[in-house]
């Protein structure tokens, strides 16, 4: 069971704990207790081995493609946290019957993972304490400490630990085992190279041993075998004495933007030698301080709620968003599972722009900029995809890995329950709304930050090229003289091959209109930018006139008499089936039907029109939103983790705060709840952005309407107040949202204007306003 209330004092609502060992559900805490710093992430897998253990280590941006239909994916690199422990000749591993007082806790504030218990052998009781962290200070460093104390009698303890390069991604081996060696008989070095992308990984590990706090310098026995380089230590430990093994690990790659360790193989081990002199505690302290500076001191959100869990949930989301976001490198983005598991191959989806980017745009715009810059670097791949499909401009990939690769969505997925064959994945071909989602990310970033330089260098080009794609993608029809978009998948992925999906069409038109506006602006006011872009992408007045004209003709479904907007041309006439069996049974429907069959039923996987309301809510009345919410939600199974948060915000917007809070609870427990099988393949990254959105965009009511920042809070009964910082147009603002009162403080130097419950308010430097 997962416990949420073990933290006290400064750690209140910062600890998540598993209170019993469960060999059949190892994936749960491996995932939710993974540790990372955006450069790398290591799952919270046990040190000792189990058949079902998944000890992944991923380094952001190191994609490699396997042969044939194998997709490009983040390779699971060498495992360093695992170790073999042998006590009196018997391999140590837990069963439910030999463990006492088990406690596995991740401290979200410090980033440290701890596992403590007593291990019952035939004739001894051994106390274990494992701790480890991935440094928030030095992105390449991880460290681990194991303390073993025999409690009943002396014990012989053998430790085999080092670098294990036998790791694969579900059997797919991504590495050439290039070099393995020891330096100074104490330092283990391994160089691996990815098979196709030819990225070198330089991995180092070394140990420090203490017997009752006194350092022991006995040299270990080196063990080198195929794809493994280990050291073996043997000790006779007296009853009551403690053996401590500290392990220090570094990972570097040849694509690091600061190539400090890769000039020669020896360099990186010397760096480790230097670092480990500091010791575990000192390095942990530096990591905690860095995590505080980078995350908690600057961006922590306080929720005063009747349910303490709400505070824990936002802390949990913020921790993981930090662990998964490669803030250090604009060539990288956030995978749908972060860096926490093999699921979705490390690929980035629309999840970034619609669910994850808002947290960064509002609170840490530098990181938001880096994430959008990644899309800019992806323009080449997007142009390639457009061309291959017979279109103009840039057609962004549904799934993205290396920015220049273009589309990387796998061709095949799980089994088609009807045919028994592998299911063909169609999203990479026809889920095309990603292109305008990327454009929307640029628009949101610009509106909130006012970063003109970014627009000049990157943003305008993305907007113009995506508009150009849409203009070429639109189709004429015999029925009318409007332009249509047929054969797509909208946000709701249970409806495939549909025509005129409201979300897709609306965003395509918006993308074109906004690009035309930007074009006119830069032509009139930014001649240098205009000249550069005109030359680079062949902009002409005629081309833009065509885009403007075609945008004006896009078919946009409008609310009918019943106020309902058609999600697509067929949804409302689809066959209704009894959905009871599939509710609260994620993807259960796929066990009975394949996607072709499901597409014929009136059932949704996730929010569709609701996302439109979330992005452009100002364009519809609450009455229309409510009518659509009430119509569509009963057909929605929320089988995507992206669904609850959007519905939560919309329910709140239309005044249904009770249901909104219920949906919030569901959003917060997708991974963190008690379902032990929910996240074996990794975290649901976008749902963490969704939790942030529920709190800030939903309850605290922060929304951008065009270029204006609005606060229209509506706190559910359970929540008394929310406090958070943001950086709006370069100024740090502090918001304190309470039931009856909003207090905004401008901590920046320049005056900004915001709207509080519709009233325009000028916020001067250092001053508070309360409304
Ligand atoms: O992007 C999502 C999609 O909307 C639903 N399926 C999972 C994807 C990755 O999270």
Give short descriptive properties of this protein.
771 residues; 19 helices; 32 strands; globular; 5-stranded antiparallel sheet; binds 5-hydroxymethyl-3,4-dihydroxypiperidine
Task: Explain the overall architecture.
- By secondary structure, the chain is of the alpha+beta class.
- It contains 19 helices and 32 strands.
- The two termini are 44 Å apart.
- Strands 1, 2, 10, 11, 12, 13, 15, 16, 17, 18 and 21 form an 11-stranded antiparallel sheet that branches. The chain has a 5-stranded antiparallel sheet with strand order 9-8-14-20-19, with no helix packed on it.
- The longest helix is centred in the middle third of the chain and has 24 residues, at 502-525.
- Bound molecules: 5-hydroxymethyl-3,4-dihydroxypiperidine (IFM).
- 5-hydroxymethyl-3,4-dihydroxypiperidine binds next to loops.
- Residues 336, 344, 349-351, 493, 640, 642, 686 line the site of 5-hydroxymethyl-3,4-dihydroxypiperidine.
């Amino acid at each position: 069971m997962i416990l949420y209330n073990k933290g006290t004092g400064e750690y209140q609502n910062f600890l998540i704990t598993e209170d019993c060992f469960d060999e059949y559900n190892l994936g749960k805490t491996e995932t939710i207790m993974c540790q990372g710093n955006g450069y790398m992430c290591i799952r919270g897998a046990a040190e000792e081995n189990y058949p079902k253990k998944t000890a992944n280590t991923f380094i952001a941006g190191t994609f490699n493609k396997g042969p044939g239909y194998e997709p490009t994916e983040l390779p699971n690199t060498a495992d360093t946290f695992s170790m073999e422990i042998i006590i009196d000749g018997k391999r140590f591993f837990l069963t439910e019957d030999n463990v006492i007082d088990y406690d596995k806790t991740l401290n979200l504030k410090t980033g440290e993972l701890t596992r403590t218990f007593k291990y019952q052998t035939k004739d001894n009781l051994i106390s274990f304490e494992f701790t480890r962290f991935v440094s928030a200070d030095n992105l390449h460093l991880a460290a681990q400490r194991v303390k073993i104390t025999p409690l009943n009698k002396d014990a012989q303890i053998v430790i085999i630990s080092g670098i294990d390069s036998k790791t694969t991604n579900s059997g797919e081996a991504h590495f050439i085992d290039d070099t393995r060696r020891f330096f100074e008989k104490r330092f283990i070095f391994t160089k691996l190279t990815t098979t196709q992308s030819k990225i070198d990984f330089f991995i180092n590990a070394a140990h420090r041993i203490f017997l009752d706090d006194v350092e022991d310098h006995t040299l270990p026995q080196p063990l080198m075998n195929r794809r493994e380089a280990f050291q073996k230590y043997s000790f006779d430990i007296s009853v009551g004495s403690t053996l401590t093994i500290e392990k220090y690990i570094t990972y570097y790659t040849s694509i690091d933007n600061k190539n400090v360790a890769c000039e020669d193989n020896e360099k990186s081990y010397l760096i480790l030698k230097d670092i480990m002199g500091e010791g575990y505690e000192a390095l942990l302290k530096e990591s905690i301080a860095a995590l505080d500076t980078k995350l908690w001191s600057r961006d922590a959100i306080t929720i005063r709620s009747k349910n303490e869990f709400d505070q824990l949930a936002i802390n949990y989301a913020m921790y993981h968003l930090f662990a998964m976001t490669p803030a250090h490198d604009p060539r990288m983005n956030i995978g749908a599972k972060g860096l926490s598991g093999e699921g979705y191959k490390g690929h980035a989806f629309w999840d970034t722009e619609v669910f994850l980017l808002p947290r960064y745009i509002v609170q840490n715009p530098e990181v938001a900029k880096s994430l959008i810059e990644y899309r800019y670097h992806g323009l080449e791949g997007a142009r390639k995809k457009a061309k291959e499909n017979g279109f103009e401009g840039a057609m962004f990939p549904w799934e993205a890995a290396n920015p220049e690769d273009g589309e990387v969505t796998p061709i095949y997925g799980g089994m088609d329950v009807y045919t028994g064959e592998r299911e063909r994945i169609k999203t990479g071909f026809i889920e095309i709304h990603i292109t305008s989602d990327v454009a929307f990310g640029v628009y949101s970033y610009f509106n909130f930050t006012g970063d003109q330089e970014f627009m000049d260098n990157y943003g305008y080009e993305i907007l113009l090229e995506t508009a150009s794609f849409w203009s070429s993608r639109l189709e004429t029809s015999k029925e009318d003289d409007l332009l249509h978009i047929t054969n797509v998948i909208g946000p709701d992925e249970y409806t495939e091959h549909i025509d005129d999906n409201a979300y897709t069409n609306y965003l395509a038109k918006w993308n074109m209109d906004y690009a035309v506006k930007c074009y006119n602006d830069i032509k009139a006011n930014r001649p240098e930018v205009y000249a550069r872009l005109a030359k680079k992408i062949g902009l002409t007045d005629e081309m833009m006139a065509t885009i403007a004209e075609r945008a004006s003709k896009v078919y946009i479904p409008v609310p009918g008499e019943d106020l309902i907007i058609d999600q697509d041309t067929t949804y409302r006439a689809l066959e209704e089936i009894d959905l009871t069996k599939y509710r609260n049974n994620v993807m259960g429907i796929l066990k009975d039907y394949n996607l072709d069959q499901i597409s014929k039923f009136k059932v949704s996987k996730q929010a569709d029109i609701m996302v439109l309301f979330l992005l452009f809510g100002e364009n519809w009345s609450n009455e229309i939103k409510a009518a659509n919410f009430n119509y569509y939600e009963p057909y929605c199974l929320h089988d995507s983790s992206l669904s609850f948060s959007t519905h939560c915000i919309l329910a709140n917007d239309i005044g249904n705060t009770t249901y909104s809070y219920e949906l919030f609870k569901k959003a917060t427990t997708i991974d963190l709840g008690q379902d032990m099988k929910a996240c074996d393949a990794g975290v649901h990254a976008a749902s963490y952005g969704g939790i942030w959105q529920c709190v800030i965009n939903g309850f605290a009511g922060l929304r951008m309407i065009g270029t204006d920042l609005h606060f229209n809070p509506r706190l559910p009964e359970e929540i008394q107040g929310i406090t958070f910082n943001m950086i709006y147009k370069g100024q740090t603002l502090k918001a304190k949202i309470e039931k009856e009162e909003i207090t905004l403080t401008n901590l920046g130097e320049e005056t900004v204007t915001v709207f509080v419950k519709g009233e325009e308010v000028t916020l001067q430097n250092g001053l508070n306003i309360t409304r």
